[in-house]
Structures are given as structure tokens and as C-alpha cells.
Amino acid sequence: MTIVVTGGAGFIGSNFILDWLALSNEVVINVDKLTYAGNLENLQSLKDGDGHIFVLSDMGDFANISELLKAHRPRAVVNFAAESHVDRSIHGPAAFIETNVVGTFRFLEAVRFYWNNLPNAEKQAFRFLHVSTDEVYGTLTPSDHPFREDNRYEPNSPYSASKAASDHLVRAYHHTYGLPVLTTNCSNNYGPYHFPEKLIPLCIHNALAGKPLPIYGDGQQIRDWLYVKDHCSAIRRVLEAGQIGEAYNIGGWNEMANLEVVTILCSILDELSPRQDGVSYIEQISFVKDRPGHDRRYAIDATKIERELGWKPAETFNTGIRKTVQWYLDHQDWVENVTSGAYQNWVGKQYGA
Ligand code: NAD
Ligand code: TYD
User: Which terminus has fewer CB within 10 Å in the chain: N or C?
Assistant: First the structure.
């Protein structure tokens, strides 16, 4: 048996593939365009014969995707590929529309034609799992209930709007064509192989490099953090037992203000890799201009996936964040390699010289 994963060289996709192949013998075809966020080094611990086949392709390349689906006959597709960084979507929304909306549409088309031509039993068993985000629901006030699956879509950034559009296309392909889809909407992930443009890896990287830790606005924006391997276990569970056509919110019941997250990071670093001058990394915190349209609070009500599919995260924030900091300390060579020229250009554009 075989599955196709798109975006498997990115942060969550690579964690998903590593865990998948550690748990099963089922081959994974990894379709990735290798944008700045795609890094095959994330998968270098895999050996020949481990069941990972890499295909360099845009997920929106209908001919390539059709050919590989025909050749490998997957029983399922897990769609991670996307442009994923909110700040980049503010500077340059076009790539987000191109990949997240048009790319997903073209990919759905190729999968639909493949699926339509499968014999009945394979057709019934096939699944298209679309990986999405809680950001499609917009922002919450402090007293709002966390996002449920039936919350209205109210995306506020070009990133979340493009993900919302892709979710709608996936939904429409089920209702119109009967494609057996599943959608997951997860909260903020953290963990190994997280590109150091996002809050947690950026702050670990900057702290160790003696640079400022940039906190947007007042730092009181709330996110609901989940360790990446718990997201991966939830996706496996939804793929295995989710109801066709349903969406599942995934989260760890772990709401935290950004300033608190960075303060915790600093105290773990103070313990595991103290500064030579004995001063806490907290001194490096620096308040900077807020993100335009910055969503104030995200929070997930994970009752549905817990009750219907029996999923629960294995890590608490305390255990997950410690593992993450230790991983970055142990993998400074990985950080060096991804902080390439292209990445430096981004840092200049976003934070100034
Ligand atoms: P990422 O940016 O780290 O990785 C994206 C991957 O997709 C990269 O390997 C990139 O090369 C690839 N890619 C981009 N455009 C492509 C295209 N046109 N064709 C093929 N491959 C392409 O992203 P991530 O953080 O791993 O997120 C993966 C998915 O999970 C995204 O769909 C994102 O919206 C969703 N998600 C992310 C989070 C989070 O906290 N990171 C939370 C919830 C949901
Ligand atoms: P990020 O990791 O970009 O994820 P998202 O925007 O998808 O939630 O940001 C997480 C939070 O941290 C968000 O509220 C923005 C904030 N943030 C900062 O305060 N400083 C930074 O340098 C970055 C990248 C993010």
C-alpha cells in the first residue's frame, strides 16, 4: 500500500513522514516543490529501502501529478503543501493565492480524475486528507468559546483567506463529485524542523546568536500551541477513522500569550545553555511594530476529535517545549544550513537591518 504526501519536505510534512515510516511499512510518495521552506535534509535520517520516494514537483502540475498517481496507485493523499507564513502573505500575497488556492484546485482535479477511474473497492477506500489551520476561523475575544468545527469562516490575513479558499474547494469536491475528503484544522505547531521564521524557532535562534527576540505589539496575542508530533498522530487517526466529508479541529488546550511563550523559552535556554555573561536571555526581548491585522486570539475546542476518534496529545507544553529547545541545541548545523542567503533577505525585509 502507498500514500502520497504533498509538502513532505516542510516542517509538519517531514515530521509526518518520519513518524509514518517509523510506525508502518507503507510507502510514502513525497511530492514537494522545494520552496525556501522545503528541505530534504529534514528526511536525511531515512535510508534507502525505508519506503520514502521523493518527487520534485509542483502539486499544481496536473500532468506530473496524474502520472505519479497512475504509477503508484495510492490509497490516500495527505495534502500539506502550502505557503504557510502569515508575515510573508502580508508582504507578497500572490504566492499564497497561486499555491494555496490555484495549486490546491489543480491538485484536486488530478486526484479527482485518478479517483474516478479506480475500481469500486479502491474508490470506496480512497481518502483525500486536507491539512488546514485554525486561522480560517478568524480571531477570538478573550471571552469567546474556542473554535468549534461549525464556527463561521472569518479569515483575516491573505494566508488564512487562501487556506479558507482551499478548504472550501475540498468541501465542494466532496459535495459535487463525491471525492472522499477529510479536513483537519489545527492550531499553531512547534517542534523539530520548524523553519526559523516562525516565533518559537526564530526566538531560539536569535537568543543563541545574541540577537533581539522580536515581540510584535504588546505580546499579549494568544495562540494554542501543539507539539508537531501530536498533530501528526491526529492526522493519522483522522485518516484511519474520520468520517468522510467531516472537518476535525486539532489542538492541545494550551492557550498562551506570545510574551509568556518567549519568556518560557528564555528560562529553558538559561538552564540548558546559559549565556556566558550570566545574564538571562529575557534581556534580549525587544518589542517591535505589530503585524498589520494581527489576530488577537486563536483557541481550539478539540472535543470532537477526542470524543469521536479517541485522540489525545501525548505532550504537554512543558514537555514539548523542552524537547524542542533541546532539539535546536543539538541541531545547530541544521539551523546554520537553513539560514541561507534567501532567509537573510527575508529577515532584512521584515525586521530591517
Ligand atoms: P512549511 O512552510 O514548513 O512547508 C510547506 C512545504 O510545502 C514545503 O516543503 C514547500 O516546499 C512545499 N510546497 C510549497 N508550495 C508547493 C507546491 N506548489 N507544490 C508542492 N510543494 C509545495 O509549512 P508547515 O508549517 O509544515 O505547514 C504544512 C501545512 O500545515 C500547511 O498546509 C499549513 O497551512 C498547515 N498548518 C500549519 C500549522 C503550523 O503551525 N505550521 C498549523 C496548522 C496547519
Ligand atoms: P507565527 O509563528 O508567525 O505563527 P502565526 O502567525 O501563524 O500564528 O507567529 C506566532 C505568534 O507570534 C503570532 O501572534 C505573531 C507573533 N510573532 C512575534 O511576536 N514576533 C515574531 O517575530 C514572529 C515571527 C511572530
Answer: C
